[in-house]
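User: Please fill in residues for this 176-position structure.
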């Protein structure tokens, strides 16, 4: 094998490894964003309205609304605990609860609305509302991936009257 052929093979191998790393990093970033958003929506002790997470190379930016500076710090700490997170830029806005329009809904009405929204999405047919207590919705069921669990939590969270979402959804790993 001549020197030119050897150099070309080495260069091709290096480029393919770089591409594989890029694909893996992109997949990891998507997983981090999904896991972080799900954690922000379902964590106990604080609530993030409109939770949105962007991740690039393990560097996370979080957006949304919290009701106190302490909740903002708790949200950031929650995201920092996720595997693969290198840094967190916290752009959460603090809007005290007394400045937001608060509408109290009956838990039974909230449950019916959440169930209707879940039923409207065919991919969420295995997710059910186990209970609603003071606006805290507990979801149960089985889904095939973390993204579907996130979609279920986001769907529930958008319903008027929902203060927080807790999830006991199981993510099934399909058999090969």
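Assistant: Residues filled in for all 176 positions:
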């Amino acid at each position: 094998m001549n020197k030119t052929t050897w150099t070309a093979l080495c260069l091709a191998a290096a480029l393919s490894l770089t591409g594989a790393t890029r694909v893996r990093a992109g997949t990891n970033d998507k997983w981090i964003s999904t896991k972080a958003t799900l954690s922000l929506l379902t964590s106990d002790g604080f609530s993030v309205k409109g939770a949105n997470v962007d991740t690039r190379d393990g560097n996370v930016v979080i957006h949304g609304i919290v009701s106190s500076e302490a909740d903002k710090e708790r949200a950031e700490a929650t995201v920092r605990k996720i595997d693969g997170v290198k840094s967190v830029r916290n752009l959460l806005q603090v809007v005290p609860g007394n400045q937001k329009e608060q509408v109290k809904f009956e838990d039974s009405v909230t449950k019916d609305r959440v169930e209707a929204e879940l039923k409207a999405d065919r991919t969420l047919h295995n997710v059910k509302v186990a209970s609603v207590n003071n606006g805290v919705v507990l979801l149960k069921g089985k889904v095939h991936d973390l993204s579907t669990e996130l979609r279920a939590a986001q769907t529930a969270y958008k319903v008027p009257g929902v203060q927080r979402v807790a999830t006991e959804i199981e993510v099934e790993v399909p058999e090969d």
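For context: The longest strand covers residues 49-56.
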